[in-house]
Structure formats: C-alpha cells, structure tokens
Amino acid sequence: MSRYEVWAPFAADRVEVEVGGSAHPLARCADRDGWWAGEAPDGDYAFRLDGGPPLPDPRSAWQPYGPDGPSRPVDHAAFRWSRTGWRGRPLPGAVVYELHVGTFTVRGTFDAAAEHLDHLVELGVDFVELMPVCPFPGKHGWGYDGVSPWAVHEPYGGPEGLKRFVDAAHRKGIGVILDVVHNHLGPSGNHLPAYGPYFTDRHHTPWGSAVNLDAPGSDEVRRYLAGSALAWLRDYRIDGLRLDAVHALADDRAVHFLEELTGEVEKLVISSNRPLFLIAESDLNTPRTTTPREAGGQGLAAQWSDDFHHALHTALTGESHGYYGDFARAPLAAVAKTLTRGFFHDGTWSSFRGRSHGRPFAPHTAGHRLLGYLQTHDQIGNRALGDRISTSLTAGRLACGAALVLTSPFTPMLFMGEEWGAATPWQYFTDHTDPGLADAVRQGRRREFAEHGWQAETVPDPQEPATVLRSVLDWTEPRRVPHTELLDWHRRLIRLRRERPELSDPDLGAVRVAYDEAARWLVVHRGPYRVAVNLGADGAALPLEAAGREVLAAFGEASPEGTAVRLGADAVAIVLTG
C-alpha cells in the first residue's frame, strides 16, 4: 500500500485515486485546507474529482504514457548514483553550454547525449544547460509547452534517463543546469485548472491567464512551483536552474516569488552542502534580479544578457530590424557599452518598446552575474528559417564573435554546435497531437513572419517531421574544414580564459574598450591583454596602447607592430602587452 495526497480545493465532496481500474476514496485533511489523502495499492494511478475523468497527479514525477495518461510513482532513493566525488561548483568563472536533448543527437535521448560528454570535456565547458525536459504532447518540441512541472519527458528517457545523464556528466566533471518554466503551461495536456486556482485572471500574459502567484490560493501554488524547483536540485542532483521569462511572473505580493524561491534554494544549499544557483531569463534590464536578498534584491546568481547578444549580433551581421534597431545605429559603441556597463538599455530610450527601458548596474558590479552569448535557442529558433549566423558569416567573423564572448567579463554561454560553426539550422518544431492546435500553431507562425515580408510557403511547418530532422546536429561536421578550425579556436579561447585570470575578470569597471565605428575595429583591454578584432573589409593596424610582447592566439592574419597589431579582414588576435 502507498499513501496518496493531492491538493484539490475545487473538488466539491469526493476525491478518489484510481489504481489498476479500481477507485479508492481519499479523505479531506483536517489540518491542510484543500488537501485530500489516503492509502491505496501501489501501481499506476490517477485522481478522480467528484466522479469526473481520471487525471494525472499534479506532482507526478513520471508520466510514462504522456501528459494525459496515468502517473507512476518514482522511488528516488532507489537510483544508484556513482561515487563521482562531484561536490558541485559555483557559477562564477564557468563556461555554460546550452543543448536541446531531442536534437543534440539523432536518437534524441539523455543516454545518446551522454555519449558526447567527452566532446564537451575537450571543449572545456563547466556546465551543460538542458532546455526544458518536462512532458509535453507528442515526441518532439522545444520543451516550453511542458505541462507536468515535476516530471520528465518519457521519449527523452524519463526520470531514470535524466539521472543517468546527470550522473555521467558529474563523472566527467561537468555540472548540469536545467531550464524550467514557471510562467505558463502548455496549451494541451494542462489539467491543473480542474484541481484548484493554479491560474488567475488578475493578470494576463502572452499565454493567457497568469500563474496564480498573488491571488487567493496562491500560497499553495507558490509552494507547488518552489517544490518542483527543489525536487530537480535534490532528487536529480541538478546543480542550477535557468528560470524562463521571469518578467512574465506576475506577482504583486510584498515578497516576490523569485525572492522566496532563492531563499528556499539557499536552505537546500546548507542542507546538501553543495553549491546551487538560479539563473533568470529577464527582459526587465534590472539589477534587482541579481542583487542579494539582504540588499533588497531577489538574489538570483545571474541573468541572461540579451543586450550583449543584440549588440554583438548587429556588429557582426549588420542586421537592424526589430529590436536590433537601437543597437545597429552604432554597433561597436553598443558592444563597448555592454562590456563595460552590462546593460545597453539602462534607462535609455528603446525605440522597439517606444519608451525608456532598464536601469544601470552599480559601479564595479560583477560581470559574471550576466550570461554573455552570441547564439541561443531563442535567437536562432525564433528566426523565420531558424538559420544560424554561421550560414551567413565567414569563419573569421565567427571567430571574432567567439573571442568577444569567451574573453568577456560575463559568464559565457555557447549554443550546441556553435563551437564548430554548425551549418544545420535550429528551427521551431512541434508535435501537437491535437489537429486543431497543430494547425493554429502552423498558421500563426506563418502569419507572424508574413508581417515581416516572408512568403508563407518559405516558413517551415513546425509539425512537419522534416523540420525537426533538419535541426539535429550533424556530428560529422567537426571533422571537416572550416569546422575543425573553429572548434580548435573555441577550445583555445576557453583554455586561455582559464589560464589567464584577467581574461575572465568579472569587474566591469576594469574593462576598457577602444573602437573605431567607421573603420570597424575594436580592442578590448583586459589587464595586460588586448582582444583585437577587425571587422573591416581591409587589413588594419589596431592600437594596443602598449608594446605587444606576444600574440597568444589569432584567427586570420595577425602580426604585432610595436604598439599596434596588424590584422587582416575578419581577423582577431589576443595579444599580451607590456
């Protein structure tokens, strides 16, 4: 026999747990408002509310038949973890690698992904960041339409598969970050509204009614989300969580949910005696997200920096549409500002938003509180064709971008395949089992890009199997030119970052940047080192402001000339001066 519990305040007078086709009544908990509990046989189970249809457990850790099917208990203590010696590592000073389990390999499973961990060890990354792994309808998807926040997508390998991957990564000395979504649930397979007030119409989001963080009943909803987050860190030994779109967490309470969650994670740090952390994806451009709770902030370890991405993207590509417009006016100046001050929009006018946006960091803020990147799943997959910048830029220009990311004061992050300039696209794909929803997603995406001048037939159909197949990495590429050179370049940059502390110094106030917008060159001063980048069409001599002693690494033509370094077009060099 097992004990079954569920929070179901919307149930009028009857809650049952169904196991093996037999229903077993649960009793109201006298000391826990809205909770029902009782004992029943072991096995796959579902709850029935007031004689309604069987529903999966909101706290299910395993949905072997998909998000609409019955739940299965998981004995987390039964998994045999290796004696890896892994005690975790903090985020500052680390390099992060974002990957999508379903397209990292042809098989698209945790076990298949683990077979490529040696590649990541040789690359030199410290953390793998897995895109969301919660269940969603069908087999293929980005994961942001998950509907069971405590469970693991069965086609990837389920709970045991995730544990095997984490265990294997830790044996290799690599930590694991998991991307989780608290701001909404997917449009299909979400059964939470039947149980209780998990959502509220007090706030509205791009996905409809907001998750209930501040309306009546929100105490239990907050505990539900925080419990899910802690379960990943505790039961799966995940090292950190990336929280999706925290700006969409509508919460008017005095203590914001994020502040509450960081407090709970800090308690787990103490009890587990290992480093654990939270990273936010935020569109707010506010230092409050990463300011310690004792100083009035929300206390997260870091947040993604889209401003740095946008500045670097415009500098390398020349694109100027949409939100790139503000950065494209003077892209090298934008790169310089983000490298020295963190945010580009720190109270400045944003033409894309039609208002001023953001606020500045305090002087000498630690740059590791921002993740810096040239490519992410969003910045590739949300393009009409899901095309990577490697399809339009020279290898030299890609190398320039990599150098600016991997010698930055930020916590650098790479997107899978970026390290070798992968030519495969990463497109938007779904596998909705509801035909109406599938068609709505298909037509909605085509309408969205038609507004920007795209022909509907050129936008890939998210439901077409070929769309996901095109997005799978080609692991033969790293053995071919020019991919081999780019892979070697990324390895050298990460090795230099680790060997030369000045190249990872997080003090934004210690970074200086010289640039010439017209000539298209930029030199980043990192202590005695200079990261010299020439994006111009011709060779140029870039000033170092000190005698160059040694070119530590270069991609393209590079030769020191006294207090300058001469670079060919689309070339980059890291020079030791003094």
From TrEMBL:
Binding positions for substrate per the UniProt entry: 242-247, 306-310, 377-382
Keyword vocabulary terms for this entry: Carbohydrate metabolism, Cytoplasm, Glycosidase, Hydrolase
GO biological process: trehalose biosynthetic process
Main location: cytoplasm
InterPro entries in the cross-refs: DUF3459, GH, GH13_cat_dom, Ig-like_fold, Ig_E-set, Trehalose_TreZ, Trehalose_TreZ_E-set_sf
Catalyzed reactions: hydrolysis of (1->4)-alpha-D-glucosidic linkage in 4-alpha-D-[(1->4)-alpha-D-glucanosyl]n trehalose to yield trehalose and (1->4)-alpha-D-glucan
Enzyme class, UniProt record, top EC level: hydrolase
Record site feature (Transition state stabilizer), residues: 378
Pathway: Glycan biosynthesis; trehalose biosynthesis
GO molecular function: 4-alpha-D-(1->4)-alpha-D-glucanotrehalose trehalohydrolase activity
PANTHER family: 1,4-ALPHA-GLUCAN-BRANCHING ENZYME, MALTO-OLIGOSYLTREHALOSE TREHALOHYDROLASE
Family per record: Belongs to the glycosyl hydrolase 13 family.
Protein name, UniProt field: Malto-oligosyltrehalose trehalohydrolase
